Request: fold
Amino acid sequence: MERVTICNENGLHLRPAEKLVTMANRCSSHVMMTCGEHKMNCKSLMSLLAFPVCPGDEVTVECYGEDETQALERIVTFLKDL
Reply:
């Protein structure tokens, strides 16, 4: 589990959300993201878009499964680089 602050001036909108879903689906682990009281499945575009993630929001990324360490590293790096 790791926390990341979203620095992108547009937050997590459609285009980066699509990239995140593609990246998460390449992992065999479950990839979840929590923002406030909302928990989202990073392998589902609809799940990510259902709750707005705004600039400055802190999200928590959790990965569970076979490749959880690598998945967490990839997802966190992607979110930091937005």
Notes: The beta strands are 2-5, 30-35, 38-41, 58-64. The chain has one domain: 2-81.
